[in-house]
TrEMBL record:
InterPro entries assigned: Class-I_Pyr_Nuc-Dis_Oxidored, FAD/NAD-bd_sf, FAD/NAD-binding_dom, FAD/NAD-linked_Rdtase_dimer_sf, Lipoamide_DH, Pyr_nuc-diS_OxRdtase, Pyr_nucl-diS_OxRdtase_dimer, Pyr_OxRdtase_I_AS
Protein name per UniProt: Dihydrolipoyl dehydrogenase
Species of provenance: Gynuella sunshinyii YC6258
PANTHER family: DIHYDROLIPOYL DEHYDROGENASE, DISULFIDE OXIDOREDUCTASE
Substrates-to-products reaction catalysed: N(6)-[(R)-dihydrolipoyl]-L-lysyl-[protein] + NAD(+) = N(6)-[(R)-lipoyl]-L-lysyl-[protein] + NADH + H(+)
């Protein structure tokens, strides 16, 4: 007889493992299926994010930034270090240890919360049955009252640049280099491309970033994007916009890339090439014939605002559905769906307050609308900016690049967006998220006491600047 569960979750990435834990906490008999196998041949929980995405990439970003700081700026603090070297193998070993700790941590959380962890590949069948193909080829079928599909996403491959052993790699392969490439090509100037390009540029690679779009970071506020592009180019990233890749050829231990810009066809030769032009949902193989779940034109699972699919009792969350492919977005969807299954029908999440972060240095983070979006929507708004160059804590940290920018409705004063470029932007933007969740006004932030000296004081002055009342920078003179 098939095992029976109240909830079966397919996939243990951030969306899946949170959905499983929350479901179990709400009293549901829960199972979570995971197919990922680590280097040792053991099932590893956590999906792309923990195994080959968010976590390992941030570990390398942190290591490379410390190396760069030791090489370039510790002297400003009066600290002299001679013969600074990078041990790539040790850096990678540290990264792998962090991954192992966190994936093992999820296994511990499953055990603590009573989630049944099942190894294998899950496929939804008719009548909410889930087929599990084990690693040894054996098959088990589970009966579920509710199914949550959280199968995630994988890197997009493009025909002109097929993967090639360790020379042409995707974002996963870029986390496994055993030495610093002398010359590195990055296809795609999005979040992943900029982060991975930054890692290896800090460690000494000559990095060229090739991007098809004419505008740098088109989804970010363009004042922030333009400032960031200038800084990244100063840091050594050769960013080439409006360039369409047409082909590649591996020659020995190098790869020749051909591309077209507005002028002509061009070629570049690299020791390594990272292809990061986006990700696509994993829907192939997880939906059995006749299961009833429908896909949209881009092969995302079609869901409503509460992540219900077209089949009652079947939900889909995370990268496999519409919306930004962000771990924290998937996590919150997991909580929402678990609560709905437990009977809280009104559970929902606010898709307008999902923060976006690019973990370069300085970091870029934002929540809510950009100026460009507000202009396109015809919204009358006001702007407040505070540069970190005027913030004492940033000066003490020797890291004054960037600013905080706040957008507020001109009539209601409600905060519509916060954009941060600078040190700890990923932490500072949370203040904008909380403010917008509580429908705060710029005045609410103006009347809030911020600790001094902190980087967050930039938020306070940016809010004051919305009404031309900044205290630590000169306000524009009012026209008579």
């Amino acid at each position: 007889m098939a095992q029976q569960f109240d909830v079966v979750v397919i996939g243990s990435g951030p969306a899946g493992y949170i959905a499983a834990i929350k479901s179990a906490q709400l009293g549901q008999k829960t199972a979570c299926i995971e197919k990922w196998v680590d280097k040792e041949g053991k099932t590893s929980l956590g999906g792309t994010c923990l195994n080959v995405g968010c976590i390992p990439s941030k570990a390398l970003l942190e290591s490379s930034e410390k190396y760069h700081e030791a090489m370039a700026s510790l002297g400003d603090h009066g600290i002299s270090i001679k013969d600074v070297k990078i041990d790539v193998k040790a850096m990678m070993a540290r990264k792998d240890k962090i991954v192992k700790n966190l994936t093992g941590g999820i296994a511990g959380l499953f055990k603590a919360n009573g989630v049944t962890s099942i190894e294998g590949t899950g496929k939804l069948l008719e009548n909410k049955q889930v087929e599990v193909t084990k690693h040894d080829g054996s098959i088990e079928v589970l009966d579920a009252k509710n199914v949550i599909i959280a199968t995630g996403s994988v890197p997009v491959e493009i025909p002109p640049i097929p993967m090639h052993e360790d020379i042409i790699v995707d974002s996963t392969g870029a986390l496994e280099f055993t030495e610093v490439p002398k010359r590195l090509g990055v296809i795609g100037a999005g979040v992943i491309g900029l982060e991975l390009g930054s890692v290896w540029a800090r460690l000494g690679s000559d990095v060229v970033v090739i991007e098809a779009q004419d505008k740098f970071l088109p989804t970010a506020d363009q004042a922030i994007a333009k400032a960031a592009q200038k800084i990244f180019e100063k840091q050594g990233l050769d960013i080439r916009l409006g360039c369409r890749v047409t082909g590649s050829e591996v020659k020995g231990k190098q790869v020749v890339v051909t591309y077209q810009d507005s002028e002509s066809d061009k070629q570049e030769t690299f020791d390594k090439l990272i292809v990061c032009v986006g990700r696509r949902p994993v829907t192939d193989g997880c939906l059995g014939e006749g299961c009833g779940v429908t896909l949209d034109e881009r092969r995302f699972i079609f869901v409503d605002d509460q992540c219900r699919t077209t089949v009652p009792g079947v939900y889909a969350i995370g990268d496999v559905v519409r919306g930004p492919m962000l771990a924290h977005k998937g996590m919150e969807e997991g909580v929402m769906v678990a609560e709905i299954i437990a009977g809280h029908e009104t559970a929902q999440m606010n898709y307008e307050t999902i923060p976006n972060v690019i973990y370069t240095h300085p970091e870029i983070a934002w929540v809510g609308k950009t100026e460009e979006q507000l202009k396109a929507e015809g919204v009358d708004y006001k702007v407040g900016k505070m540069p970190f160059a005027a913030v004492g804590r940033a000066m003490a940290a020797n890291d004054t690049t960037g600013m905080v920018k706040i957008l507020a409705d001109k009539e209601t004063d409600r905060i519509l967006g916060m954009h941060v470029f600078g040190l700890s932007a990923s932490e500072i933007v949370a203040q904008g998220v909380i403010s917008m969740e509580f429908m705060a006004s710029a005045e609410d932030l103006q009347l809030t006491c911020f600790a001094h000296p902190t980087l967050s004081e930039a938020v306070h002055d940016a809010a004051l600047a919305v009404d031309n009342m900044a205290l630590h920078i000169a306000n524009p003179k009012k026209r008579s």
